[in-house]
Amino acid sequence: MTNNEDILITEVALRDGSHAISHQYTVDQVLKVAKALNDANVPYIEVSHGDGLAGSSLQYGLSRTNEMELIEAAVSVADKSKIAILLLPGIGTLHDLKEAANLGAKMARIATHVTEADVAQQHIAYAKELGMETVGFLMMAHMAPVEKLVEQAKLMESYGADTVYVVDSAGYLLPEQVRERIRALKQSVGTKVGFHGHNNLSLAMANTLVAIEEGATRIDGSVRCLGAGAGNTQTEVLVAVLERMGIQTGVDLYKMMDLAEDIVAPILQSPQEITKDSLTLGYAGVYSSFALHAKRAAEKFNIDSRDILIELGKRKVVGGQEDMILDVATEIAQAKRSLVLK
Ligand SMILES: C[C@H](O)CC(=O)C(=O)O
Ligand SMILES: [Mn+2]
């Protein structure tokens, strides 16, 4: 890999995609996907539970395989790509970070709700101490005005983040909203700027292109759209589009297509489409990883999952409040029952 690329892609299917397959990755799947990504020259491969290190729990979903084994597997086949991990302070600890670094992870992406950057200080500083490249990952970026986002990005920068990301966790942002956010960050922070999209409103690619136009140089994608909700910006498609635009990513398009078709498609429980649930996430501004939890709750209570998601959006529920999904489902079911009894 050279340093001549205009855009450096982080492939997130082995982390964000974990949500879409209920955290059931096996070592064999990770070995195959990571090796193919490495062979295709993808610069960064993120590997963790969908909710970051130590996310495996009843609240977020139990992993089939210990994520440290998955990280170790990915590192073992990646001689060009760097392995990244995601960590949400409060879920993952400094101990988890150290364990991942000892296994060979080279980049730490520290994720917080868009208004809570201050909880990332210790983790970013420690990742730097461990010699890792650091990213401040500001989730649910639609929930804060631009000035607030800038303030939080500056905090991440002051803690030592090398890059700050605008994260459209709900796939809610419209292209002009992405434009104003990336533009404001480019004007106000000295770090590199990145963008992570979700395709719930079919805008992930358009939003990514706007982010690049405004100067974002770090971009996330998921091969075959294997990410939460309707997935992320589809990596192999992004590589093709950027190549046509004359923008260098260094990624081998044919190898990415083969990986998507031959290795990733068979892993999917069902094809990544914009379903009524994922569309509702984007429409209502709800965290993409809530989709499967809401679907299960809807089945349990025999109610419409869209009603749960819309209500969660109204209540401005954020990542980490997964317990609210059951609460809201219970309330909707009770209200439905009392209507029947009247
Ligand atoms: C923990 C989340 O799944 C992180 C993410 O990918 C997002 O907010 O989007
Ligand atoms: Mn995501």
Automatic annotation (TrEMBL):
Q: What GO terms are given for molecular function?
A: 2-isopropylmalate synthase activity; 4-hydroxy-2-oxovalerate aldolase activity; manganese ion binding
Q: Which GO terms describe its biological process?
A: L-leucine biosynthetic process
Stated EC number for the protein is: 4.1.3.39
Q: Which residues bind substrate?
A: R15, D16, S169, H196, Y287
What top-level branch of life does the organism fall under?
Bacteria
Q: Family assignment?
A: Belongs to the 4-hydroxy-2-oxovalerate aldolase family.
Q: Tell me what this protein is called.
A: 4-hydroxy-2-oxovalerate aldolase
Could you read off the lineage of the organism from its UniProt record?
Bacteria, Bacillati, Bacillota, Bacilli, Bacillales
